[in-house]
Amino acid sequence: MTRIATKLTTTGLGLIAVLGLSACGGSSMSPTTGPGAGPGTGPGGNPALEPNVGDATEVQAIRDSINEGLGFRENDNLFGPRNGDAVYSGQWITGLEIENQPEVNALVGEVRMLVDIGGGRNPVSGEISNLNTLQNNRAIELLTGDLDISGNIGGINRRFDSGAEFLGTVSGYFGGDTLENLQINADVSGGWRDSIVGGDPGNVIAGRTTGTANGTPGLGLVDITNGQFRADRDSGT
């Protein structure tokens, strides 16, 4: 994941992490058909995509950076342009429990968040891409599909309004032999934070997520837990 590597080396690990969501049974979604997802080889000999998140040290650095971001001071002001688009980049990690694939216990993905700054309620859009399954800090598989980011951030407390969410469907083998789908609907909380006391207010957005997940029948019951994220404002935006 090129962007992750950049954040680790240039911004003191600007990243995101872990979702707290409720358990939900398998849905009526149909498994994806056709050939395998890619050239990699999964545990059961399936053509799962090889992960692109890096080694266990990098995954732990993502976790640490997200926790750091959640500890930054919340603020009421913003640095940089007060009108126009501001881009925030980072990562999100969520715990993940799959009844029929217990070796998978987390997801990590890249966040690109676009904030339309104009005063009042500021619309937020973007996506979470390059989602990888994890076993603790060991990457297992790169999934296909992205999550859309939507909602508003702003107001007096510079926090996400109710209704902000990460939403979408991803596909992969999740450690098994069959291509499966997983639909995620995560509610977002959190807001702007200041990583430098007395300077660059609002240069980080960090928060937590809760919600639900539904998978194709082969996954069994799915529970997404302990969701957290961090994204740092790109220079020049």
TrEMBL record:
The lineage of its organism: Bacteria, Pseudomonadati, Pseudomonadota, Alphaproteobacteria, Rhodobacterales. It comes from Cognatiyoonia sediminum. Residues 29-52 are annotated as: Disordered. Keywords: Signal. The keyword Signal applies. Residues 35-45 have a biased composition (Gly residues). This is Transferrin-binding protein B C-lobe/N-lobe beta barrel domain-containing protein. Residues 1-23 form the signal peptide. The keyword Signal applies.
